[in-house]
Specification:
It is a single chain. The chain has 87 residues and is mainly alpha-helical. The protein has a domain of 38 residues. 28% of the residues lie in helices and 5% in strands. The chain has three helices and two strands. The N and C termini lie far apart (43 Å).
Length: 87
């Protein structure tokens, strides 16, 4: 029996975000611009998210659906936790 219809699209193998794809994206010119936070802020954001119960599989925020290692690098992004952003 095919159970794929019971899974969210992002949980299906062909849509999984890999560490390789994240690193490739972070190496692109957009992520070396003035639109990004410095490494200290980035690492602090990642640390905060890693301690959050809303982080799924170490990658996705279950509140907004963003890919945390990507969103945390951008200055214009912020935590979307209801009741108070963590960063």
């Amino acid at each position: 029996m095919d159970t794929r219809n019971n899974e969210c699209k992002g949980c299906q193998e062909e849509y999984k975000v890999t560490e390789e794809s994240i690193q490739r994206l972070l190496a692109s010119p957009l992520f070396t611009s003035d639109q990004c936070v410095d490494d200290e802020v980035y690492n602090e954001r990642l640390r905060i998210c890693n301690g959050c119960a809303k982080l799924q599989n170490g990658i996705n925020c279950t509140i907004c659906g963003c890919i945390i290692p990507v969103a945390a690098k951008l200055k214009r992004k912020s935590c979307t936790l209801p009741g108070g952003a963590l960063w």
